[in-house]
Each structure stands twice: as C-alpha cells, then as structure tokens.
Amino acid sequence: MTKFLTPLLTVNPGDAAMSDAYADLLRHSMDQHATRPALTFAEESLTYGDLAGRLGGIIGEFEKSGVGPGDVVAMYTADKRAILLADLAAMLMGAIALPLNNRFTEPEMQYYMEDAQPALVVTDEAGRDTIQSVADRQPGDVGGLVDVSAVLDAAPARLPEVEIAPGAPAFMLYSSGTTGRPKGVLHRHDNLAAALVALRDTWHFAPEDRLLNVLPFYHIHGLSFASHMMLLSGCEMVVGPTFHPRRTLQALAECTVLFAIPTFYYSWIGHDFFREMAPTLSSVRLFTCGSAPIRPEVLPELEEILGKPITNRYGMTESHVNTSLPVGVSSQEGSCGKVLPGLELRIVDDSGTDLPVDEVGQVWVKGPNLFREYWRKPDATEKAFEDGWFITGDLGRVDADGYMFHAGRCQELVITSGHNVYPPMVEKVINAMEGVRESAVIGLPHDRRGEIVAVAIVAEEGAELTEADVRGFCAESLVDYCVPVHVHFVNELPRNTMSKVLKRTLVEQLGG
C-alpha cells in the first residue's frame, strides 16, 4: 500500500488558544491587527478595526430582515465589496453565506433558489427583477430581498457576541461533484479554519504581505483561498474589479502576492508590454496559479520573464487546497506540489486499491479541510466518500519525491477561464431547442482559456439548424461562458455497450 501523508496540522501559537471555528479566528485577527490595513477597494480602504465595525453594522441589518443562525444568505450582485462584506457578516452571525454568479440567468437562478431556499438575497438593481421573477414562480423558495446599499451603507456597530460552534455551517458554494448536477458544498467553521490555516502557513503569509485579488468572489479561489485566508494573516488585500492585462500588472507592482489562474499568464505572455513591465514586479514574492496547471511548454518563458517560480497548487470546492508547490520551487514538468500539512492523499485504481508511485489513478483525499456534506443531498454525500476518504473524481499520479501531477478529471466538468461549466445543465437547454434530438457537451483544450465549451448535436430529420441558431438559443438561458464556442452537427453520438455517451471519444473526434 502506498500512501502520501504529512504530519498533523500545526497552528500558530496565536491560533492555538482559539476555538477552531473560523468565526473565532477571524474575530481574533480583526482584534489583533485592528490598526493595520485589511481591504482596499476602489471606493474605500478599511483597517481590520474598520472591518469589524462594518460587519457589526451589517449583522444588525441582517437581523432586522429576520436572518438567524443557520439561515442561508445569498449574494447575487456584481459588487465585489458588497459580496465580501455580506459573506463575512453572515458567517460571523452564524448564518450560511452563499455567493452566486451575478451573470446567472433566470432559469439558472430558479434552480439555485429552489435548492438553497435562502432566507435573504442581497442583490442590486440589475438582479432584483430576476430574483423577483423567480420568487413569483416559486413562492416560499426565496426569502426577503435587500439592496446592496443596505450592506455598503450600514452604520458601523460593535460586533455582537455570538457563540458559534466549530461544527456550525459557515458558507456554501455550488459544485458539480461527480454527477454534473450542481450541488451545494457546505463548509463548516472547523473545516474552513483547518483548510485556511494550512494554506496560510504553507505559503508563509504574514502581516507584511499585500495580496492582489482580481478573481470573482462567487468562486472558492477568489473568495476563500484568497479572501478568507488572508484575513487570518493580518495582511492587506487589494481588490480589483476584474483582470485587465495592463492595469493588473500596474496594481501588482505595489503588491507581494498574486492569486491567479492560467488565463492571466497566457494573456500577459501575448503582450509585448509584459516584458517591459516585468521588472516593476520585483516586490512580488509569490505568484500563484490555480484552476488548472500552466502548460509546461509555456512555464519556462513565464518564469524567466517574472524572475520567480509560479506556485501551482491543486484544490477544489469540496476541500480547498490539497497540494501545493513549496514557495520558491519551480515545477517545469507541471506538478501540483506536495500534500499540505494535516492532509492525506491516495492514488487508487477503480477498486480502491492503492497504486504504486508514478502510476496514474483516482485521487482520494482525507483531512480536517474537507467538507462533510452536500446541501440537502445525503445520497450524493454518501457516494462521495469511502471510509472517510473523499473521492475527488480527478486523476493523478505522485512521484517518488511526493510531488503530485494532475492527469485530468474522471467527471465531465469543463473549466473555461477558471469558470466551472456543468455539461448536463447546458445539454438540458440545448435539448429543449426545436430540431435537436440529443446533444453532448464537452470541453476542448484551448491555449488561453484552458478549455472551451463545445457541443455535438444530433438534429431531427429535416431540421435546418445552424451554429448561430444554437449559440443564440443558449445565450437566452445560459451565462456567457456556458454558451458553446463550437457547435458540431453529427449523425450519432459515440456510445458504449451500456449506451453511455463516450465523451472522451468525442473530444478526440472534435479536436482534442
């Protein structure tokens, strides 16, 4: 049996005296670093002390709206400042924060509202009509609505003394899991704290750091890996609205850490000004990359221009970060690094038997970082675990030195520019189109986006469908990155003897 283990999680002395609830660690950090800068937005800058006061005021607003411990508070807005403040306030009062992509369409939001049944939705003018329309069709599935102004303009107040158990729910994000159907991944305060302390210590975060975050806050990378974690370190986070090749580089020149996805680096390397501006980044000690490994053929040039290694890691919505390259170590072969403290990782075959070093198999993980349940889906939760091991649905191998290499996904999730696309949801839309007999959605490799969404369609006899027709139909019901970039019309879909569509064969046929 081959297992890849690390010592038990150790925490800093300041954390050891605290409960292992994330809320307690966050309160402690805001008190300990009260005068230090915490968050810098375009609109305002907040110290840790300012942040505590703002969150106290927002909690008061939520309580006026009837929100209590265990209730779901959803955020459906493009305002990143409102999302983060509402997210933190909800967790500190014992509620469950649920950030959602503001670009989700009405049909998509109907699913999430029905499944999550939030007690309160924080939204803006752009999202109010969508939420109200969903609420009109699904009475009881959507609670109250509150405008982002109630969050942004809340008068500062003392944080209420709320005792939150370590095992209490903290926040939730949706993931496809292994079935392709979006499921709410519920993180509790203890597993959140364990995951973030391990990552903070692995990447040597300290109050002197200044982190640049231009990632979305409806995804675990920008929200939790970056934002939740940095607040436990006493450092400052500079929040940008979105990635822009030149403006992001300009902002990064005054920071020490970048949280990024491969798309950022691929964009930079395509611009002449990247080499010209790279010397201004001398203060950056840590370039990170998540969502997918950077292509090995591009990595050497990127690291030569930056003058530092890019720290790749392997994580997911259900577990946060599982493995990471050590800070300052380059992996020209594309490794995702070593297992973080407190975690265990196995590479197994289809029967669950451990595989030898360097053999590709399924990745299973175990540790205090793991979520423990999918929201209101006990059957899916049971299928996701085997004797306490989480079945990630990913493929990988580990070499003799303990470095993991990601080798693809068992499940059919497509990741394009860092966004998760769930093929069954896209297929459901396309299959409802007149003239479509059946469809299969896949991801095809792309130099800049990692993958692009493609679909193979079997049309009804006599139907005259075009690629433009399909894309236009999808755009009415799907967020933009879910709309297929390529549409292929085929006579039939490849299937196995059990009639399951062979999507890997489709990838090979359509340009994988």
Describe the protein.
- With 512 residues, this protein is an alpha/beta fold.
- Helix content is 31%, strand content 25%.
- The protein has a 9-stranded mixed beta sheet, sandwiched between helices.
- A hairpin with a 2-residue loop joins strand 20 (385-386) and strand 21.
- Helix 3 crosses helix 4 (80-92) and helix 8 (189-202) packs across helix 9 (220-230).
- Mean pLDDT is 90; it is low at 1-19.
Number of H- or I-type helical stretches: 17
The main sheet comes to:
9 strands, mixed
Percentage of helical residues?
Answer: 25-40%
> Beta-sheet strand percentage?
25-35%
Low-confidence stretches: 1-19
**Overall pLDDT confidence:** 90
Number of E-type strands: 27
Strand order of the largest sheet: 3-2-11-10-12-13-14-15-16
Shape: globular
Radius of gyration (CA) equals 23 Å
Distance between the termini: 35 Å
Quickly give the structural class. alpha/beta
List the helices and strands and how they pair.
Layout: E1 4-5, H1 13-16, H2 22-32, E2 37-40, E3 45-47, H3 48-64, E4 72-76, H4 80-92, E5 96-99, H5 106-116, E6 120-123, H6 125-137, E7 144-147, H7 148-152, E8 169-175, E9 183-188, H8 189-202, E10 210-213, H9 220-230, E11 236-239, H10 245-252, E12 257-258, H11 262-269, H12 273-277, E13 286-289, H13 299-306, E14 310-316, E15 320-324, E16 338-339, E17 344-348, E18 361-366, E19 373-374, H14 378-384, E20 385-386, E21 389-398, E22 404-409, E23 414-416, E24 419-421, H15 423-431, E25 436-446, E26 450-459, H16 467-475, E27 486-489, H17 503-509
Parallel strand pairs: 2-11, 4-5, 4-6, 6-7, 10-11, 10-12, 12-13, 13-14, 26-27
Antiparallel strand pairs: 1-17, 2-3, 8-9, 9-19, 14-15, 15-16, 17-18, 18-21, 20-21, 21-22, 23-24, 25-26
